[in-house]
Amino acid sequence: QVQLVESGGGLVQAGGSLRVSCAASGRTFSTYTMGWFRQAPGKEREFVGAIRWSGGRTYYADSVKGRFTVSRDNAKNTVYLQMNSLKPEDTAVYYCAAGKSTNVLLIYSYQYDNWGQGTQVTVSS
Q1: 125, 76 Cβ separation under 8 angstroms
Q2: What distance, in Å, lies between the first and last C-alpha atoms of the chain?
Q3: CA-to-CA distance for 50 and 71, rounded, in angstroms?
Q4: Which residues contact 40 (CB under 8 A, 6 or more apart)?
Q5: SS3 of 64, please?
Q6: β-strand 46-52 against 114-115: which pairing, if any?
Q7: pLDDT tens digits, one per residue of 33-63
Q8: 105 CB-side CA count, 13 A
Q9: How far, in Å, CA of 125 to CA of 122, rounded?
Q10: Lower CB count within 10 Å: N or C terminus of the chain?
Q11: Is 9:67 a contact under the CB 8 Å cutoff?
Q12: Is residue 103 helix, strand or coil?
């Protein structure tokens, strides 16, 4: 049974940094892509970034490109989202997700099969 557990959210001032983690278990993820999404109150869940577990290719939403970095630690089976230069509009619940890697980029929620419970990130102005 696949389990994704996020941690590391919290309150940070604008311009600050935060790293959230996603511990994955229950299967081998080498053929999977791990994605990060976020959902602010009253808004749709949106894609943030993703990493292919095999090879480590990453891709990002334009809104976070250059500020956020997705990485993975194979030994710990953990994926990270490093967030720098945070803005109040980054405030949201952040979710990690796992989806089978394909030839297309996995940027939509429906492309992911497993989800974590989410972690709150709040950026104060």
Answers
A1: no
A2: 40
A3: 9
A4: 89, 91, 92, 93
A5: coil
A6: unpaired
A7: 999 999 999 999 999 999 999 999 999 999 9
A8: 12
A9: 10
A10: N
A11: no
A12: coil
How far is the C-alpha of 37 from the C-alpha of 85, rounded, in Å?
18
pLDDT digits (tens, 9 = 90+) for 66-122: 999 999 998 999 999 999 999 999 999 999 999 999 888 999 999 999 999 999 999
Q: Which two tokens stand for residue 50?
A: 């993703």
Bridge-partner residues for 82, per DSSP? 19, 69
Opening angle at CA 18, ends 17 and 20, nearest 5: 155
CA distances from 69 to 1, 31, 41, 125 (A): 28, 21, 23, 22
C-alpha span between 90 and 86 (Å, rounded): 6
Residue with tokens 């696949």: 2
Length of the chain: 125
